Amino acid sequence: MPTPELISPRSARVAAARRLAKRNFRGKDRLFLAEGPQAVREAAGHRAGGEPTLVELFATVEAAERYADIIGAARSAGARVHLASEEVIADISTTVTPQGLVGVCRFLDTPFEGVLAARPKLVAVLAHVRDPGNAGTVLRCADAAGAEAVVLTDASVDLYNPKAVRASVGSHFHLPVAVGVPVERAVQGLKDAGVRILAADGAGDRDLDEELDRGSTMGGPTAWVFGNEAWGLPEETRALADAVVRVPIHGKAESLNLATAAAVCLYASARAQRASGGCRSVTES
Fold this sequence. Notes:
By secondary structure, the protein is α/β, with parallel strands linked by helices. It has helices at 12-18, 23-29, 37-44, 61-66, 68-76, 86-92, 112-117, 132-145, 162-168, 183-192, 208-214, 235-238, 258-275, and strands spanning 31-35, 47-48, 51-52, 54-59, 80-83, 101-106, 122-126, 149-153, 177-181, 196-200, 206-207, 222-226, 243-246. α3 (37-44) runs parallel beside α5 (68-76). The relative contact order is 0.13.
């Protein structure tokens, strides 16, 4: 395939990519930006609904040479590949130090009904989480712990915020994420699917260590509900859960931040499920 010419900074393609930094344009076009080699590599290998996720890729000449495998994967996926100057990449990018690759991707969110139909065994629910870095990091933690889905409630941050995409380090492309789900619907739907609901809260009346020691309940299908960074979970949300669980603080720290607490909780459930011989689907006898 012939090498493409360097794209003009005044190109309509550049302008269209640049505007995806804003949420209203992302929603209108149902497209978002993925920056850096890890995210672009994952996007190039991902398909949703039979369609390739990566639709367009901007790369500096240096990045195209360094990451020739990613460029090849992008072309194989049918993405348009544009060589661009560092100035063009900086114009499109939302980072202070761009890594020379910026991909334009189709939205990935999964209908909540699809999440339920898969009968997930471990789910993270983000209720009123507003910080995009935290949301992306929780998504990454859920992916690492082996969770099968993430749910963002209707009052949470945009899944495709550039900071959230960067913080997930490619995990956007690894597991189903449902967005815009009212918290009551999320909890009730998961309960109806046979999933136990645990609300993570520093003021919880149950201790995570104690829950693990009991063993019998932590090994089953579980959804953790994580609240807002500043004020946690409101009482009405805690009341929806089967249990409100706190992560024990054994040292002198005042608290854990959201992403750290989420990692502890998700890994605790993952370990309990493995220790019980593997969490069985709620459809299995």
